[in-house]
Amino acid sequence: MPELPEVETVANGVHARVAGQRIARVWTSGKPQTFKTPESEIAQALTGSTIECVRRVGKTIVMTVHRKKTPVEFLIHLGMTGRLLVSQADVPMQLHTHAILTLADGREVRFVDPRRFGRLSIHKPPAVTGGQQPAASYTGPGREPLTISADDFIALFRNRKTPIKAALLNQSLLHGVGNIYADESLFRAGIRPRRQAGRLTAEELLRLRKALVAVLRHAIKLGGSSVSDYVDADGVRGFFQLQHKVYMRGGEPCLVCETPIKRITLAGRGTHFCPNCQQ
DNA sequence: ACTATGTCCTGCGAGC
DNA sequence: TGCTCGCAGGACATAG
After folding, report:
1. What is the pLDDT of residues A122-169, one digit of tens each?
2. HSE toward the beta carbon, residue A39, CA cutoff 13 A
3. pLDDT (tens digit, 9 = 90+) per residue, A57-102?
4. Are residues A172 and A244 in the same domain?
5. Exposure check for chain A: N or C terminus, fewer CB within 10 A?
């Protein structure tokens, strides 16, 4: 499932291929739950506009386009099985394609999502009160794991009774962390997923932050984790799944101490940890 | 204000 | 071999 490293990989890949291109046409599938903003509004906002940049905020891909200097942000959330692909027009359209942006040079940006947990929407900048024109800027629901300071990171979890893993998955605290990187960072920090977030010591939280940043950076370098059907903008798989220490390794020996990895359900999610290495 | 749980959706793999 | 069934999970709604 696409989390921060996968979304970052896709956003960078799409940016490199389409920045500066004009969007000539927009097609949408009519599957209502995919569109948080009505399809007609999305099509109207994008048709004839020029793509300025494509970047990642949390788990969301933000495509900034402009027309007559008015910026609009197109938000693409990949959900669990969403793909954003840049294709030549003659590549056959695959099943579960929900949106196609046809570029002026004939190539297409395609959003494909079998399970339909993905969402497309338009983010409008807040209303302007003064004379100046603020740039549209989607900031996401929480803080960025890669740039948050140590003090702010510790403060996020203060007084929280929820398990640390559930807190890591809460996008209004940190955004971008999902099930894989929550499990992997807790393993690398030696912390049990069920520990109450508010009861972790500052030292443990610093270890967790360090582990989380390291695992996210490493995964970005390897193009993300390809579990389920994740691929980048060119349809190429990532390699970080080969570095998973606990995720989906229930019953297999811990790579550090050989204790069998335990699998439990926490916050409705499969949760994997080493009962010896994680206390 | 927090926290916990159910729901959506399809593909895949286990098991009979 | 071919079928059914349960599971995978991010975000959001709803309940406690």
Report:
1. 997 765 555 455 565 899 999 999 999 999 999 999 999 999 999 999
2. 14
3. 999 999 999 988 889 999 999 999 999 999 999 999 999 999 999 9
4. yes
5. C
Chain A window 50-69: residues with CB closer than 7 Å to nucleic chain C are 58-60
A1 touches strand C (CB under 7 A): yes
Question: Does A115 lie in the same domain as A52?
Answer: yes
pTM of the model: 0.94
| Same domain flag for A112 and A214 | no
Please identify, among A123, A138, A171, the residue that sits at the C-terminal boundary of a domain: A123
- In terms of Cβ atoms closer than 10 Å to its own Cβ (0-12, 13-18, 19+), residue A67 is middle
CB A77 within 8 A of CB A7: no
CA distance A269 to A253: 21
- Report which of residues 211-270 in chain A place their beta carbon less than 7 angstroms from any atom of strand B: 229, 267-268
3-class DSSP assignment, residue A48: coil
Instruction: Check if A3 is active-site.
Output: yes
For residue A172, the one-letter residue type is S
* DSSP notation for A159-171: T--SBHHHHHH-T
- Please state whether strand B lies within 7 Å of residue A95 at its CB atom: yes
CATH, residue A173: 1.10.8.50
Can you give the residue range of the structural domain that contains A113? Answer: 4-123
